[in-house]
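Entry for the shared binder. Reason: the reviewer on the internal report wants the predicted structure included alongside the sequence.
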Amino acid sequence: MSSTAVLLALCPLLLAGGFLAGRRTAHPAGRSDLGTPVERATFETLHTASLAAPPLRAGLTEDSARKAARRLRSLLGTDALCLTNRSTVLTWHGTGEHHAKQVLDRLAEVLDTGRTAAFDCGCRADDCPLRWAVAAPIVVDQRVLGALVAYAPRESAVLARATDEVARWVSVQLELAELDRSRTRLIEAEIKALRAQISPHFIFNSLAAIASFVRTDPTRARELLLEFADFTRYSFRRHGEFTTLADELHSIDQYLALVRARFGDRLSVTLQIAPEVLAVTLPFLCLQPLVENAVKHGLEGAVTRSRITITAQDAGAEAEVVIEDDGVGMDPDRLRALLRGEGGPSAGVGLLNVDERLRTVFGDPYGLVIETARGAGTRITVRIPKFRAGVHSSPPEAGE
């Protein structure tokens, strides 16, 4: 998350924390080693907010609203609280639930204008303490999705301000949820683009190579057919956007087995893999396009024997993977153009795709490092953090 997003998320909480601190310090419950009453109230506010945030990351639904409402009500210290979308009361928490039937009628102006409004509840029931309410809009991407409504026995300017700030914090959590969904959709689209790039020529040539062994070496043909089935199953799997280095390298080994079946002794492959990095998590289909690039510009561009070397080693807090070929190489200026997306609709899509996904997941310092020149081969270095919050592989689904 960017520093701007962090500040945006925290500011409303600290303001609401000031409101809660005022309520708590007005009637101090005694001394504590955990700090002053104001500090303790602020810590409690932040802790309560941290518990309310995860449900909201699922979006504004009945389930997420129900799970977050108790924490939000605790933040505000109100007798009752409700969350709505534009047409429905998603949840009510606290006393006086009969007010839920009329609340949407009171919210028309808030939902239309996106401005906080206070109103008299109009309730005169002796057993109902709710006499006044403040409704604040929940806004995501300049769209009013719903409202947060806090109820109290009497009018309070402080509660009105706190409700407005907590509603803004809720809006930030929902915006982050939308960013997460957008990021997931983007990565899924990028993976689909890579899958579409798996060359039909490679599939045809692999099957042709397998067919050539059917009569002369049936056992070899069967082994290659199994390698082809496993490779395509992995490449087109539907589950998860991350995988382990071990699984990615296993798929690459299957890919290279199919290539070697076609080119025989013309291809020499060396793998040097440190066992301690096999469990490292990386974006799915992150290395295979780089190896395919090495084959395309190395082996298929050579008339003699070609060599590809793949190494994976421990580099402290990171794993370092290097894919190197001794093929025809590439002009550095053309490479820079490809990585800027200026190579046309098909040129260098794999390199650009992998570079962008690495930067999206791990940050700009983790983009591809490519060393190449015409006639000098290509060396691609990928650095992968051993741990990054939110990045973890998932086991394949049954049948995959």
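Summary line for the report: Residues 157-197 form the longest helix (41 residues).
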